[in-house]
Structures are given as C-alpha cells and as structure tokens.
Write a structure and sequence with these properties.
The protein is mostly helical. The protein has 19 helices and 3 strands.
Length: 437
C-alpha cells in the first residue's frame, strides 16, 4: 500500500480504467508510426516503459490515485482504494498466464540449459547481499538515513522491498507482517521500491534494442534461444488462422475457467495449510509463502496452462491466444504504473539512494556472472525481472525480445514466488546486522 493521497479529481474506477485504456492506446498507436518524431522518440524510450509512465503521470498530477482519503460529514477520515489493480492482478494476470503458456514448448525450454536458472538465482543473491551492502555504504556518509529504532528502524522497512524484489506483493506483505515496520512510513518504502525497480527495468528494456552487441560482448551462445524462437514461430505459422467467435469463446473458456479454478484451489490450499501446518502459520518460516493464496493462484494458473499445452488446446495459439494474454498483461502494467507518484521522488532522497545502490549491486552481480558463464542478455534481463518484477514484468520483458520467449519469463517468475519469503528473511537479518555495525 502506498501512503493515502488527497482525493484525486477522478475516483470512479470505470473512468480510471478508461484513462488507462487511453494511455495504452496512445502508446501503441504512436509507437506504430515509423517516421518523424515518434520513430526517433521510441528508438530511445521503450513503448512498454511509456505504458508504466503515462499512468504514473496521471497519478502525479492528481487526476487519479491508487488510494486516497476523504472526510465524512461527521469529520471521520475514510480510506478509499481503487479496485482496478486488484481486478487486473487477480483476474487478468492468471488468465494471461494460461493463454501465454497454452502453447508452451517445454522440451525446447528445457533445452535452454541451466544458464537461465543460474542467472535467476544470481539475481536473487544480488538482492540478498545488495540490501546490507547498501546500508553499510550509506551509513558511512548518512547514518541517520539507515538508522531508526524499534519499529521505525529503516532495515525493517527495507525488508519489505526485499520481499517485493525477490518474490512480489505477497512476500512484501509477509515482511511487513513479520517485522512490523511503522505503517505510517511504509509509503516511503513503496516509493523506493517503485523507483529502483522501474529505473532498472527501463535500463534493461533499453538494452533489448542492443541485444546483439551485448551478447557479442558477453561472448554468449544464443543458439538455444534462436532454436526456441524458430520452433515456436514455425508452430504458430502452421496453425495460424482467422479467428472465429467460437475461437474467442473457447479461449475465454480456457482462460477464465482456469482463473476460477486457480482462485478456488488457491484459497483451499492456502486455508488448509495455514490451519493444519505450524510452519506455514509462522510468518518467519521459510515456507510461509505456502499460505499465500496469490502464490497458489499464480502457480495453479501456470500449471493449468502447461497441462493444456499437451492437448489440442495449444492450437488456439493460432487464433491469437498469447496476443490476448499480452493485452491482459499490458492492462496490468498500466495499473502498476498508476501506483507511481512521481512527485514523491524527493520525499526522502537518502532512502532512494539506498534503493539505487541496492539495485545497482544486483545489476553488477548479474553482469559479472553473465560474463563469466557467457550467458545471453536475455537470461540476464528475464532472470532479473523474474525476481524484481515477478509475474507482472518478467513476461513483458521476455516478450520484448521475442513473443515466443514469453513463457520463459512466466516460469522463472514462479520460481521467484517460491524463494521470495526465504530470501527476503535472510536479507532482512543481514540488513539488521549491517545497521548495527
């Protein structure tokens, strides 16, 4: 949750959704113009980054807001929250995961080898060690920035960023519950989270256009990735057809029956595990993530998509299944963007410095390991986003390389949820030690 804002000009979710659609339409239309100003503009600024930034600008000027406060006639403060992000993350995200994994070629993905997993785990280690190192560095010239006592201790707040950057929102909430950081100051951590993650993602996206140069510098073998691209593209070409109403209804059936199943089973699994197993009930347990219904929702939706890939349902890729999934993901991207209030960048510049140093350590470690093992830039970018961005960002970044690689981002993001709580806990304990040095 971000800090409650004063009431924005527009509070109707239907109108907010329309504005987000306007932002996406503007970006996709202008990025399709292959001449003049827009051609130059999008050669420097990735379109997907604009899909985050435009909603963020609307929030920053007070037109819309993810949440806000108002005063009742009796003087009572009432908290409000837009449901647009909730709908996108709980309904459209699992539907997108199903549609994007429907035509997955598991054998080809396994042929990518161990480098994808190594880069993902390197990203995780970069977050775990980056937090305490950032505290140590900043404490040299500004000890107050990383100080604080009891529940105001900055390391407690930074633990929520560790949860977000290794796993996602559910892991972030778990860290807030475990370390009881002062809720009044939590909004500052969200700003650090959003700024650090989005600056790094912008850099990764800028690198996509220079993939060949970067791979040449890394001396990377990209043959397995190229083979996967060709295999998936050839399959898509073979089954491509003009979609009918029946095709769209069937894809709707696959996607949202799976969403309903993912929610039903996810709620059941999380409730059953919380009620019956102590290690899940304890928020400090490395396996506490098993009690999160969002985790189960993502996993079950992904598994159902993979199971469908072994049936004739995979032929619906020819009718545009992954493209519809891509639309859902971009709607989610816009709702994430509206959580960014760019005016708060300078609220606590010291903490932002901590976040930037932290994400820089993550980035440097990824680059070093990629160079050592000669991993392609694709693995570096998607391995990083599977940690920092999770299921919302990893498929988007993967698709920027090639639509056929989207499923790799989905699968790595699931690993992020699995290691999120344990990795964040380890990072938090190291940050506590660092803050006392």
């Amino acid at each position: 949750m971000t800090e409650p804002l004063t009431q924005p000009l527009i509070t109707d979710d239907t109108v907010i959704f329309g504005l987000l659609a306007l932002c996406l339409g503007f970006v996709f239309y202008t990025s399709s113009i292959k001449k003049g100003f827009w051609l130059k503009f999008y050669s420097f600024v990735p379109g997907v980054l604009m899909c985050y930034l435009l909603p963020g600008i609307l929030t920053s000027i007070g037109l819309i807001a993810p949440e806000w406060s108002s005063e009742s006639s009796s003087g009572e403060i009432i908290e409000h929250e837009s449901k647009v992000y909730f709908v996108a993350s709980r309904y459209l995200l699992p539907a997108a995961l199903v549609l994007m994994t429907l035509s997955i070629d598991l054998k080809s993905i396994l042929n990518l080898g161990s480098k994808a997993l190594i880069m993902f785990l390197t990203g995780t280690v970069g977050i775990i060690i980056g937090g305490p190192l950032a505290i140590l560095i900043v404490s040299i010239f500004s000890p107050d920035t990383v100080g604080g006592a009891d529940f105001d201790a900055v390391w407690r707040g930074l633990s929520t960023i560790a949860g977000s950057w290794i796993g996602g929102g559910a892991n972030q909430a778990a860290m807030l519950e475990i370390f009881k950081f002062n809720p009044d100051r939590f909004g500052q951590m969200v700003i650090v989270d959003v700024i650090g993650a989005n600056i790094w993602m912008a850099i990764l996206l800028l690198g996509v256009g220079k993939t060949r140069k970067i791979d040449k510098w890394l001396k990377a073998d990209t043959s397995a990735i190229e083979t996967l691209k060709i295999t998936v593209s050839e399959f898509a070409e073979k089954i491509t057809r003009v979609p009918t109403i029946k095709d769209y209804v069937m894809m709707f059936f696959f996607a949202f029956t799976a969403v309903g199943s993912a929610h039903f089973l996810g709620n059941y699994f999380s409730a059953h595990l919380i009620e019956n197993y102590e290690f899940v009930q304890n928020p400090k347990s490395f396996l506490s993530f098993l009690g999160g219904n969002f985790f189960w929702m993502v996993v079950i939706a992904t598994v159902l998509g993979i199971l469908l890939s072994f049936t004739k349902a995979k032929n619906y890729e020819g009718a545009g299944a992954s493209k519809i999934g891509g639309v859902f993901i971009y709607i989610l991207v816009a709702t994430i963007g509206m959580k960014m209030d760019l005016t708060k960048v300078l609220d606590n510049p010291g903490l932002i410095v901590v976040g930037l140093i932290w994400i820089s350590i993550h980035a440097i470690l990824l680059i070093i390991v990629a160079k050592l093992i000669k991993a392609p830039y694709f693995f570096l970018a998607v391995g990083s986003q599977a940690n920092v961005g999770g299921a919302a960002s990893a498929p988007v970044v993967a698709a920027e390389f090639h639509p056929s690689l989207t499923s790799v981002g989905v699968l790595l993001a699931v690993f992020g949820y699995v290691v999120g709580t344990g990795g964040a806990l380890l990072c938090a304990y190291l940050m506590e030690i660092a803050s006392k040095v």
